[in-house]
Structure formats: C-alpha cells, structure tokens
Amino acid sequence: MVFCQVIVSGITMVKGEGIKTKFNVLERNDEGLFQERNAEISIFSQSGRALGAGSSRSLTDDEWLHAHIYVLKNCDEVQPFLNEYTQDHDNNATKMSIDEWDTSFIAWFKNKVADMHTQGQDARTDSLISLSRGPLRYSTCYNGYIVNGFRFRIEDRDLGCKTQNSGVSVLGDVGSGRDYIEYYGVLLEILELHYLGGKRVSLFRCRWFDVHNSEKGAKVDEFGFTSINTQRILKTSEHFILANQASQVFYVVDNKIKGWHLVIKTHPRDLYKMSHQEEVENINEDHLGETYQHGESFSFKCQEAPTLNVDNQGVWGRNDVEPVIVEPSTKRKRKKT
Question: Where does the DUF4216 domain lie (predicted)?
Fold first, then answer.
C-alpha cells in the first residue's frame, strides 16, 4: 500500500525528490521559483530562469553606473528615497546632467542607508545595504532566459536560425503629456548582477529602435498594426531593463518599404485568454446556470430536418419554387483518332 501511494503521488520517500510523470512535469517555459522567496526587497525576488551555462565578465564603469541606477529607480522600496532626494535637491537638478544626478543620488542613498543601519531604524537595512552598495564589478552572462512565459535568446543566437526569440518590447514612461509608450528592440545580452549576501538581479541589455519619431521611426496603420524602421536606432543611454519587465515580439519584413518590419506580439506559452464578461444589471435569473461562450451567436435558426422516402433517404426537394425538369444530353463525344 505504501508503494502504491508513492507511485500515485509521484514522491520518493528516499531523497524527497519528485518523480517526473505526465501529471507533474514542468512546462517548457516554466520560470522556476523566485530567486529569493523570502526577500525583504522586491527587486531581489524576481521570477525567471537562465538557460545554459553562464560566463563571467567585468562591467565597465558606465555599465555599472547605468545598471545600478536603473535597478534603484525600478525598486519599489527605493521610491520614498528618490522622492526625498528630489525634494531636497530640486534647485540643483537643473544644473546637473543626468549622469551627474545619478551619481549624486547613488552616493546620497548609500550614506542614507548606512545612517539608518547605524541607528537601527529599518529592519530591512541588510538588504538595503546590499542594494545601496551596488552590484559587484563582475556579472554572469547567459544566452537564454525564461521569464513571463517567454523564452528569450540573445541576438547572436538568433542569427542563422529560422525562429526569432530576441525581439523585446517594454512599456516606458516618456512624460511630456504622454503617459506611456511601447518600446521595441532586440535583446543583445542577458546579465545577472551579483550583490552582497548572494542576492541577484537579472537585466536585459537591448538595442532600441526609434519609436519617438512617428514618421521615420514607427507608425501604426489603419488596421492597428505597428511597423518599425529597424535602421533607425534610438539615441539613449538606458539600454537595460529588468528581465521580468520584458514582453516578446517578432519582426516580419515589410516587402513594400525597405528597412521596415511589422511588429507581431507573441503570447506566453500555456497562457490562455479567457473571455471577460462585464457585470450587467437586470440579469435574467433563468439563464444564470447556462454556460457562457465568448462570441457565441444566438440568432441562428436551424433548418427543418428533411423528410424521408420509403427507402429512408432524405428528400431535399424545395417547396417554395417551381420544379425544373432537366433532360440528359443524348449526344456522344467522338473519340479523337
């Protein structure tokens, strides 16, 4: 009986490992567990799974700065510090460049967290210290990554392949009256940043296309399809995004306009769109138990079943028109000699 229970449940009692069966096998694009399930800071609990063996490389000063500040600006727990720093240094903001502002905030945030740790003001100071110190000067690079149900590959791996896995899209805030804009690009590198205490953050380094120019860079046709001029690259220093911010697209060559590609959005594997039925007032209680199917038509009327003759064969004659007698042809075609 114990043996049967082990086989049915798919659990080994020797090592505590699961037995792979068709009932518990992982999906192809399974992201795995969180990197740190009980992380005190959300940025250290990203979902995702790297593919293949990684290789280490050093970060340049610019890469370290841009990666560090991007992680800080996209961490929910750092937002109060950003607001405080912006209010206190509002007068000097116009006099500094973007890199100078970023460098100044990094130094201020590091000192701020150190003071909090000394005074014991926040229980999360251990994680905040790791975050404020920034990533280590080396990172681990991967060729593939699974996140949000998508399987990504870097551009170098896509070259020569019939499939595309390097197309990336992300929503970004541009301000100037426009809340959000969707950016499209190509995945160049997958970096895993390492922090003190064994904490990690995964970033995508991308090449972005110029979507700010609505005439020469990107356009939307009358059918709602987006086309991108892949020859126009966006001039920006922000090449990094968090891995879990990425959605996947692929690009189809436009045969009419040279250099333009049509953007096709992909759907995550094993994710199905369920129809959304809005709440309607005065619902008929007689139909509450009926099954609802999206796009179902209720105006279709079935034709009456045909009558049967003595041989139980259907009679498909019409009663609403006069009968037409068709005489078979008696002429025979002559064979060619």
Answer: 191-263
Residue 272 maps to a domain:
no
Instruction: Determine, yes or no, domain membership for 285.
Output: no
pTM: 0.70
Is residue 265 within 8 A of residue 249, CB to CB? The reply is: yes
CA distance 206 to 227: 18
With CA atoms as reference, report the closest residue to 243 among 315, 140, 174: 140
The residue behind tokens 């804009």 is: 181
Strand (E) or helix (H) holding 182 = strand 181-194
Q: Is residue 110 part of a domain?
A: yes
Measured between alpha carbons, how far is 215 from 252 in angstroms, rounded to an integer? 19
- For the chain, counts of helices (H) and of strands (E): 7, 15
Query: Domain range spanning residue 188?
Result: 42-265
Mean pLDDT in consecutive groups of 10 residues from the start of the chain, 337 residues? 39 46 53 55 89 93 96 94 89 78 94 87 80 95 94 91 91 68 95 94 96 88 89 91 95 88 85 55 52 53 59 69 76 62
* Dihedral angle sign, alpha carbons of residues 243, 246, 252, 258: negative
Helix axes 61-73, 98-119, angle to 10 degrees: 60
**What angle is formed at CA 116 by the lines to CA 115 and CA 122, rounded to 5 degrees?**
170
Instruction: Enter the tokens of residue 189.
Output: 């590198």
Is 313 within the bounds of a domain?
no
3-42 as b/e: b if 16+ CB within 10 A: eeeeeeeeeeeeeeeeeeeeeeeeeebebeeebbeeebbe
Count: domains in the chain:
1
The alpha helices in the chain, defined as continuous H runs, are 2-9, 61-73, 79-88, 90-93, 98-119, 125-133, 155-158
